[in-house]
Amino acid sequence: MSTDTTTWNTLFILVRRDVLKTWRESADLLYPIMFFVLVTILFPFALSPEILVLKSFAGGLLWIATLLAMSISLENLFKTDYSTGALEVIVLSGVPLLLVGLAKAIANWVLSGLPIIILAIPLALSLGIDAFSLSILLLSLTLGSATISLIGTAIGALSVGLRSSGMLVIVLALPFYIPLLIFGAVATSNSQAGVIPEAELYFLAGLLALAVTLTPWATASAIRTRLS
Amino acid sequence: MFKFLYHYSSLRNFYFFSEKLLPFLLITFVCLVTYSIYGALISAPADYQQGDSFRIIYVHVPSAWMSLLIYMVMGLSSVSVLVWKIKLAEITLSAVAPIGAVFTLIALVTGSIWGKPMWGTWWEWDARLTSELVLLFLYLGVIALLNAIDDRRTGARSASILCLIGIVNIPIVHYSVEWWNTLHQGPTVSKFSSPSIHIDMLIPLLTMTVAFMLYCLIISLYRIRTMILVYDKDSQWVKNVITDNREQI
Amino acid sequence: MTEFLSMGGYAGYVWSSYTITFGIMTLLYVHTKRKEGKYLRWLRRHLASLEK
């Protein structure tokens, strides 16, 4: 099935290109991560250093921090490609735009989602989350952050090259993250009560499935529109 | 029917057709809204439980319905823009978005004012209110995107994509908040339980809704007609319209 | 008449809702008409500059 191999190959090449490009400009790599940590530690200062208090909203807190931190990385997704004209070259070269959209989302997740999930471990423990809840939190974050990357890529593509596109993307994207936030935060707090949050996790998985099917199409359409 | 739609989706034909329609719409609106306000404030009997505060329903519910109706109109326009690239649909999208945002705001504010005497609080985080709030942000998002993109046609296409993603999101948000509420609230009485409504109370509600629909249509037509002139500004028929206009003043 | 104005004690709530609603609707109408005028003047200037 040589067409299948070519598709996977193209996808891999596109993802690798984006990851390496951002990796080389390592400042961009660190911003989401630093923001994630900073936002998280603001809450104990604002509310209370008591572990019992922190424990009660730790899941929601980490989820909010994830949403905000990942939104920061959205602006740069298409910026360099658009300004250097590389995006037009890619479109003209006949690469299926669906793959480009998917590749951008995967690259974004690898570069911001994955580090955040890893960093969530020490931060969650510092907020008093127990081991079982931590595993549920990480699972919910994995499912959710992938969806965030997918939706964020579509919205990033819509606003590429616009004035103050960074803030525009964040403001446009956040309403779409609300259901993820609800299910993720509830999953974590339910697991802290000792229950396995099956329903919530299924919904997160379902939303991810929906995003994987629909958002690449939206991203492709957006890229085509912005370049025309 | 398609011939009819095809004929009137041309900017020029729509412009002249709507010109003839507007006076009729305006008169009907003024009559209907006067009648509805009279019905709402005077002839409808006061509610047994809520007293006269229930009269807020006559502005709150029609506004909420308009906010949803306009979003559906925007959704249909978005599909028309993306699939058939109809210019009139592009214009409709940008014309109608601010009107929808305004009615969403009115619905939220009047709902909040009504909530105080009815439930004792200015706000409740239940599915309907929260979804309406998210809807406001979706409207503002579409408006922001339309404003940010200079080229009108590209802007309309981008806003259409955003609008369609939003349409998928609204039921998801509504459902997830509803589900979240059933977890966090105790067994409370449904705040929106609607006992069978008395006919004297229902009629002003229906007439007010139609009046609001007419209002939305009138304002939309004004905005669409202006944008049509701008879109086709270099064509002969627009030049004629403007010179005629100039002579009239 | 005072009974009507006081709305069974809920005067503040009912009258503020109605004034806000119809007030905003009036403002929207005025704003739309003003914008229409502005665009027409702009189009006239544009037309005049073409004729030169």
Write the layout of secondary structure elements.
The complex is a heterotrimer of chains A (228), B (249) and C (52).
Chain A: H1 2-24, H2 26-46, H3 51-72, H4 76-84, H5 86-92, H6 97-126, H7 131-158, H8 165-192, H9 198-227
Helix pairs in contact in A: 1-6, 2-3, 2-6, 3-6, 3-7, 3-8, 6-7, 6-9, 7-8, 7-9, 8-9
Chain B: H1 2-8, H2 11-43, H3 57-84, H4 87-119, H5 127-148, H6 152-184, H7 199-231, H8 236-248
Helix pairs in contact in B: 2-7, 3-4, 3-6, 3-7, 4-5, 4-6, 4-7, 5-6
Chain C: H1 2-6, H2 11-51
Descriptive account of the structure:
The complex is a heterotrimer of chains A (228), B (249) and C (52). Chain A has one domain (2-227). Helices cover 87% and strands 0% of the residues of chain A. Chain A contains 9 helices and no strands. In chain B, 41% of the residues are buried. The longest helix of chain B has 33 residues, at 11-43. Chain C has a domain at 20-52. The N and C termini of chain C lie far apart (64 Å).
Classify the helix fraction of chain A into a percent range: over 70%
Unreliable runs of chain B: 186-191
Number of strands of chain B: 0
% residues in beta strands of chain A: under 5%
Brief sketch in words of this structure:
The complex is a heterotrimer of chains A (228), B (249) and C (52). With 228 residues, chain A is mostly helical. Chain A is built from nine helices and no strands.
Supply the key terms:
heterotrimer, A: 228 residues, mainly alpha, 9 helices, 87% helix, B: 249 residues, 81% helix, globular
